[in-house]
Amino acid sequence: QKEVEQNSGPLSVPEGAIASLNCTYSDRGSQSFFWYRQYSGKSPELIMSIYSNGDKEDGRFTAQLNKASQYVSLLIRDSQPSDSATYLCAVNRNYGGSQGNLIFGKGTKLSVKP
Amino acid sequence: KAGVTQTPRYLIKTRGQQVTLSCSPISGHRSVSWYQQTPGQGLQFLFEYFSETQRNKGNFPGRFSGRQFSNSRSEMNVSTLELGDSALYLCASRQGAEQYFGPGTRLTVT
Prior knowledge:
The complex is a heterodimer. By secondary structure, chain A is mainly beta.
């Protein structure tokens, strides 16, 4: 079982729709969860972090965490063509106090059609 | 604040050579992590440095090494390069739990 799993996509949504991206993780000891956006040829950009169960909203983005189900999701409301990118889910297990080791999923490629 | 900087941005080396990549974290950040990104394996953790000490290491051979200086700048070194080392090498600067990536160094091994 992979440590962090994402549907590779591509996920295609029309402009203005809600894009829903999902991620599952295997280690129940995981404590911190992140979503990164990566445009083609660029480095990952942190867009959301979430640490406790429930929802966290930031502008058009909502991250959802369910530790019991080992599930993290990202909702993008009012999707724009500029949101077309690969979205990476990352998990930190904080072993031995080290928070510098992120485990990444392979990413979901999102395409927003005008 | 300036972001994470990495040099060089692009590098072409031949098999058997060694390479050193450099990373300067965001001002005030003391933790630097290195990652390798390839199309097949995705983003994989190499190692983390905090206050000049290696805190954690990923599952990579000993040819991959790093260090951190007193000003928090970090370098990573890959010796005896192999074709499979061709990748985007990313440095991340950490504040709390959040990591911020630099632009990366694209290494091509021929």
